[in-house]
Amino acid sequence: MVETLTGHNRSNGISYTELLEGDKVRAPEVYFEESPMEPGLTEVEVSRYWTKEEHDREVEMLWKRVWQMACHKDDIKDVGDTFVYDIAGLSFLVVRVSEDEIKAYPNSCMHRGRAICDHHKKGQKALRCPFHGWSWELNGKLKEVPCQWDFPSVSEETHSLKEVRVGEWGGFVFINPDPNCEPLEDFLGDLDRHFQIPFERRYKAAHMIKRLPCNWKIAQEAFMESYHVVGTHPELMPAFSDANSKYDVWHNVSRAMSAHGAPSPHTDLEKPDPTAFPDQKAFQSFIHPISKHTFKRLEENRVEVSLPNGKSGIFDMEANYIEGDLKSADPHMCNWIGGKIAPEEEDMPMIYTDVSAHQLRDEAAQARREEMRPAWGDMVDEISDADLTDAIFYSVFPNFSPWADFNPIFYRFRPDGDNPEQSLHEVMFMVPLPEGAERPEPAKCTFLDLHDDYTEATEFGSYLNKIFNQDYLNHKGMQKGVKNQPHGVSIFAQYQESKIRHFHETLEKWLTSKEPPKSPKLEAAE
Predict the structure, then answer these.
(1) Are strands 489-491 and 446-448 parallel, antiparallel or unpaired?
(2) Nearest to 51 by CA among 416, 410, 419
(3) Which residues have CB under 8 Å from 21's CB, separation 6+?
């Protein structure tokens, strides 16, 4: 590995901003803004990742009083449509009351507390508890109590459903159980200025939820930085400037920007390496740019690993040794080459031309423009190279992550019920639509349980899903390892993990403040 202690505050090689400056189609000015987190030490007690006490504290101090995305308006498109939003042990019912109004209530009957809805429903005329038949109008007003003579203390005034605060951003419905919370607009601040295509013009083209064997914070942190690429995703390094990514933070928002084109500064490469994939296929073979080990797929769950000195061995997709004189191998690369592949994607091409980083960015951006031109017309010529090639992803406290304009990825991370050692990783493709285009129906959700492979969600394609599978190896190992951390704390890099530092410092404010932290008002534009 190339030494990355350079005497200045980043790794060697071209910086992200320098790459942007050389693009043929210039990036939006907001991408050039610098808002780094102040350097400093952030330590987090590892008990926050697994104890029931910490989980319960988050329920009381965070989830019961913070703005959180519940669903998309397309999920409750028609009057009477209901959506059940669960977070930790809490459950809320989001209801389309009229064409222009959405309300939310605790998902609990005012009689004895049974959940009013067990799952999402369509076209309800009223909200009815399945246990004893108590019912409410869509607007929460008490409608009917069987044998009401037997409940002299019950009336419309006393037992109508209690409303939960509702807000909307970008087509998403947010809720806040705290009746005294600040407006959603103040909480989100000027988030809109980071997106040239408003989220109202995006639709849900794919959707999955994967249950993970780790705390929701461990899951989320894995997607907040590119520092882990060198260890977890070596297949990206020949044309991905991982350690020279750009990170910025604002009040409840943070951003990571990672460039396609320039090779990792951990390698000795000066330009993208076209020989990294010998078969010019993404999943059939790969030469590790640092170790020079060659990984070759023999069949599913069988990988041959060869060293430059001639040693070789055969391993399964989890890097368990099978045979040969080489006894150990990189588990993430064995997973990438030997893991499952969606049908008909086994031969997905992976071809780099022997060009500079800027030329590769230009080629990739131009190819993407031609793919989009039939739907978007000549407007594609104005879309920046960065928007079409780079990983530009935001994190909005506490738990959702929208990506920039023309990368459709959208994440959300939630506790899985009251189990602090499980979580739900939600992935959507929020695809932008040209002006005036008809809005398709939202995709149905694919649910993957603990032992289901990400590639079973075929609508997301093998490339992204196999990256998720590599991250999954860390999720399992992290949850196991944090209980045995000798110092009892996790530490984070000052810059490359500043999104995680920002998240934990914000979370600490919520967990220790008697009153929910308020957002600073935006100064009026001068």
Answers:
(1) unpaired
(2) 419
(3) none
